[in-house]
Amino acid sequence: MNVRRREVIAAYLFLAPFLVTLAIFFVYATARAVYFSFTDYDLFNAPTWIGLRNYANLFRDDLFLTALRNSLVFAAVVTSVQTFGALVMASVLNQRVRGLNFFRAAFYMPSITSSVVITLIFLWMYQRRGLFNYLLTQLLANLPLIGMFVLVLAAAQVVQVLLERARGLSVRWSDPALLVVSLVVATTGTTALVLLGLVAPRTVAPVDFVWLQTRQEVPGAFPGFLRAPVPLIAIMLQNIFTTVPTFMLMFLAALQGVPSSYYEAASLDGATPVQQFFYITIPAVQPVTFLVVTLGLIGTLQMFDQVAIFGNAVPLRSVITLAYFIYNRMFPGAQLPEVGFASAAAMFLALLTLVIVLLQRLFIRSEGNL
Amino acid sequence: MSAATPLAAARRARETLRWEARRRWARAGIVYVLMLLFSLVFLGPLLFATLSSLKTDPLEYPPRIAVPQLSPANWATAARLGRAGARAPLWGGFAPGADVAFQLTYFAPDGTEPAPPSVTVPKRRPGGGLGAVQAIEYAADHASVSPAEEVERRTGSWTVRGGSVAGTFVTYAVRVRYQGEGPKLERLPLDAVAPSRAQVFVRSTLPPTRLERLGLVASYNDVAPGALGYVFTNYRRVFAEARSVTTGRSLFLSWTANSFLIALAKVLTTLLLASMAGYALARLRFPGRALIFLLILFAQMIPGQVIFISNYLVLRDGIFGLASLWGQTTLLNSLAGVVLSGMVGAGAVFIMKQFFESIPREVEEAAMIDGTNQWQRFSRVVLPMARPALGALTILTFQGAWNDFFWPLVVLTTPEDIKTLPIGLLTFRNAYGTTGDWGLILAGAVMSAVPVIVLFVVFQRYFLEGVSYGGGKG
Amino acid sequence: MKRVACLLTLVALLVVPAAWAQTVVRVQGYGGSDPAIVQRLIDEVIGNDLAAQGISIQYEPIETDYNAVLTNALSAGTAADVFYIPGETAPGIIATGKVLPLNGLVDTSAFIDSLMAVYTIDGNVYGIPKDFNTLAVFYNKDIFDAAGVDYPSADDDWSAFSDKLTAVSMMDPDIHGICLPADFARMGAFAFANGWTPFNADGSADLQDPAFVQAFDFYTGLVTSGAAVQPADVGAGWPGDCLAREQAAVAIEGAWILGFLRDNAPNLQYGSTLLPTSPATGLSGNFIYTVAWGINADSKVQDAATKVLEALTSPTTQQFILEQGLAIPSRKALVDNPYFQQDTPEAQGNLTVFEGATHGNVLGFQFGSVGTDYMTPSNNAMNVVMTGQADSATALAQAQQELTALLQRSQR
Known about the structure:
The structure holds three protein chains of three kinds.
Chain A: H1 2-36, H2 53-60, H3 62-92, H4 100-112, H5 115-125, H6 131-141, H7 143-166, H8 176-196, E1 217-218, E2 228-229, H9 230-255, H10 260-268, H11 273-284, H12 286-301, H13 305-310, H14 316-319, H15 322-330, H16 339-363
Antiparallel strand pairs in A: 1-2
Chain B: H1 4-52, H2 72-86, E1 99-109, E2 118-120, E3 143-145, E4 149-160, E5 163-178, E6 190-193, E7 200-204, E8 210-212, E9 217-220, H3 227-231, H4 233-241, H5 251-283, H6 289-301, H7 304-316, H8 318-321, H9 335-340, H10 346-357, H11 361-369, H12 374-385, H13 387-403, H14 406-411, H15 421-433, H16 438-458, H17 460-470
Antiparallel strand pairs in B: 1-5, 1-7, 2-6, 3-5, 4-5, 6-9, 8-9
Chain C: H1 2-20, E1 23-30, H2 34-52, E2 55-62, H3 66-76, E3 82-86, H4 90-95, H5 113-118, E4 120-121, E5 124-125, E6 128-133, E7 136-140, H6 141-147, H7 158-169, E8 176-179, H8 184-193, H9 210-224, E9 228-229, H10 239-244, E10 248-253, H11 256-264, E11 270-273, E12 285-295, H12 302-312, H13 315-323, E13 328-329, H14 345-356, E14 361-364, H15 375-386, H16 392-410
Parallel strand pairs in C: 1-2, 1-3, 8-9, 8-10, 12-14
Antiparallel strand pairs in C: 3-12, 4-5, 6-12, 6-13, 7-10, 7-11
Helix pairs in contact in C: 2-12, 2-13, 8-9, 15-16
């Protein structure tokens, strides 16, 4: 009994500093936030109880509803794109090649630099005379060349596959060895056509897409609560850019644990790479998928930094998220702080996060079997 | 027929083997190419931003890769001018004894008589920016410019208003001398006004900073920059202008130091407290274990915006008056406040708990026989075994604390040199964002990214292990 | 006896240096181009006198959102002893109760009345305006000369002004007549010219008043007709940028553009004139932007802070600021200062801005307790019309709805 008691005392001693921090800065803080959400505290006068009025006003507030729409659309789009993109990239790169370490460093680079640095760089690239519009212009201008390249590539690949099949070897349409040859043929062919003057880049007016200073929402045909403002899409692209490499590395680590014999057996049975992807790869990485989706949802629902850094370069309504709405109501600047109102919104955000994480747990079980 | 089959079968088998080998090589090749492509996509913006941070106008259209700041010919020219200006080929300047020779080339179309431009050293008083606060000396007060002399004349054609026109290229030379004695000045600005609109500016020793008045005036911010001063103009400006008004120290250095201090403190407290708490949760049995575990899970999900107002008020009151122990009434606007309010995160405890649960109990049982108490068992036996997890946790915590944005934004507001690097960069962006001085903003961003990138390259293994630990492997 | 004398000397030696210790007064203000002005003031003009009185100034400019940081600091008790009170957020800041009323502490009669009115609530004066700004028309002389068009002048009415801008914009596809942002802080001046005011007597706001609609249509019409362009459309951050890059011939801004032009277009030959007059009323309109120094009600060094405040707004200080061309002073007596007689573009620009304060229908840049949020519905309407997404009637109806809801919420 004595031993047992000593163990309990020791446990609490070990836990004490952490528990104190947790108590003051989490439990007490959450409790106070709940309390404030039922008052009309403005930081300068004592709080007075007003019951559920904050919550009622919340859903009548235009800015809050916009923030809610933005947050949900942002979370949905970014999480799905980054999960799927990371998985596809990981499965494409899932070969035992050397030199992976160097590439790992390159892939991880966007995530380790702080969000401020990446946001500033993207802010500069999204200017109307910036890099993005320039690249789009170049893409449009070189469309004939790209089209010709793809045409020759497809033609070369088809011809080679047919020849090989005629010789009796069974090859898939996407056979890598033939693909390499097709690529070489396509490159030389396109170059030759350009030199001969038969194909040339066309001149297009410079793309002048307004990424930032616009209240446009796409797609126009959808109802208001399903549309995404263009500046928010700009932030989505940036977020995906930053997080896909990290998640891809996580998926890659998990995929390296899948025995290649599974894939070989499947291809012997005649499964195409796409079928292998859906029936082997995806179930194999289910635990990591669960983690990636959870982390993604939590992170995207709390998106704050980019909105603060974009600042007055974008209209507020087009990028405001729930997290920024809370901060904005807490320190509005032009008026007294609305602590009660902001706390009600914060409670809503916390509940929303909890509900969404629990929901997605139902769809993706964390234990996966093959 | 039957005699041919084994031979044919063998031949077919060999061919299939060769075929498989070729396919493997091809697949590996394609994977390398794809990896290279992906790396380009993910590193591209950062690299191009670094390149553009050297430009005078990063928003030039179309964006060039061949920047004048990166041509060795211009380095040599800038070094020569710097040496002429202040015997400083690296950083340039304008000092007593300076004799800077500068050349300008104009094009006069047929029918106009070429005339020398009027070249002056203007008095450029800074109009704005973060640190246009120091009392400055003007180069104009100490400089004398010789009249422009014609040096060379040749005929040719030049594109004027979209069409090719024939005319004469005339090169003029001026010399800028320092009159008498005086202080060494950092920059030597220059203005060259063409005699008429017909005469078009073509080139000069160093490219002009801007062409003004519809092409009439070629304006130079510094004609004696020195090689490094020419390439890194924006970086030099960032260091020179981002100065604290109160102490005069460079703001970037203060911000970096603050970030480093906070990150270091957080790492130390997290390592100690998280490993202790994680060990207790993993190994020891006590009532309330499940509740604490549940709290940890919740704490990882609750967004910072829910708890920040209460924590802000707690810091404002000095953590229930505790701060008065060392003589302060509030912990806001102090690094101690940031550290104390985030000493250990729930995520760190979670990671350590997962790790300790993966250590076999037998090792601990062995130590128990020796009659050690809990603390000795923890510190002497278990902790040394946790080195890989601790290493990963160090890097994760350091990176998280270094890049933390929201909480320092709320806590650290004034004065400028109390801020951390991410918040300081926001200040920088606000100060130069409206004037559109992207060169400075990009230079600031690149300078902020360098420390973490260096750290990452050196400790790459621990970073990536940290990712796998955070990913809950096992 | 000897011991007591020793003790007394010891005590005296300890106390006297303490009396020599300086009182530190903290001062907070804007960032951007402002620290240069205030720091020079402290270094060259007032620092020595105050040091002689035992006061030293610790100046902390705020680079991020000033209003948010100030509210943050006032609630935390970490705000400075002397700080800026922007005109547009003055009601909100004063409502916190943390600003010291200055009646009787400082002589307020020497300052321009319309500026003092911005900071007087219920008879209490809460801040001393330090300088002010109004809008003026700044134009690029080279472009007008090249197009052969007369310079804009104060006698132009809106249609004459518009004709000049159209003529300039036809000269070159890359050069536009004027750079106009979708900002109420500029368009409002035209509405004031027509006699419109932001708030009616009962506290409501009417954006569908014909006076407002006419001004709105004129302003947005400049963009839709091609004479004007929005800054974002030419890759500029604000109209000053447009003007400096010579993408537009005219910009309507305050004297803050002068410092910017000095940095970014030092050789630009620009002129300045008052805003054009409305054809309906024959008057022009204008905003007055002003910032005041206020004292923290919780300050522990109130006397020293009052002395610093007086020094910061003294006649010497204001004279210095004017002569250096840094800002337009708020003291009535400086109207006839010889600085304004100088012939440089900057001095003339400052003079135009100064004259703008008493020319036509001039209203303070202030929107009661709702603050700058007042402008958002109008800005949205302007943006929508300027980008051709809707016509002005629909846009203004929408804006009216949003504004009414906003005002109701702020009076919640």
